[in-house]
Amino acid sequence: MSGAVNSRSGDARSQAERAYLTLRDRILTLELPPGSPVQEEPLTRELGIGRTPFREAVKRLEGESLIAIYPRRGSFVTEVNITDHALIADVRRRLEGHAARRAAERATDAERSELDDLRALVTDPADGQPTIMDVDTRVHRAIHRCTHNRYLETTLGQYYNLALRIWYLFFDRLPDVTDHVGEHAELLKAVVAADADRADRIAVAHVDHFERAIRQVI
Length: 218
Prior knowledge:
The protein has 218 residues and is mainly alpha-helical. Helices cover 72% and strands 4% of the residues. The chain has nine helices and two strands. It has helices at 2-28, 40-47, 51-63, 85-106, 109-123, 132-145, 150-170, 177-192, 196-217; strands at 67-70, 74-77. The protein has a two-stranded antiparallel sheet with strand order 1-2. The longest helix is centred in the N-terminal third of the chain and has 27 residues, at 2-28. The termini are far apart.
């Protein structure tokens, strides 16, 4: 009996995680634009999940400032407050540098090999490879994971997501996106080489570059 209960519990957790990742990515890529309702019935039907895991996912996204829940009105994608961008960048400037430093110090050999593969993807993109935005996301999340600090990874993930949504919002107006993502090549090279000081400096400069680029178009 306990095995059946654990199985149902695990399935619910799996459904909640799937709902979270699907909703998160749709919000970040503006498929669910700022201010739009998060409609439970059509989304649970589309995802093939129950209401409880869906609501758990929505609650989690509320905690990450991507969804706002209003009593008797429902759930909505949060608006993008562009004045928050400088505040987000202020946090990321400190934490991304620290994360790059820790990744350079702590990444395993297998992780360094993975990061080196990502560096090759950045420096020599081929047809059919992930988009610029996808590559940027993969690089950041890989470095966060290589810190081997789940608290740092979780915190940075939240702030990166907020910055990423702003990037999607202004993507068509940014003139040097390819150069911005190309900066990852040197960052990944420093992390793979275990050069913590250089990795820290490059990560901070990368956040600064992004913050300036956004500021120029708003």
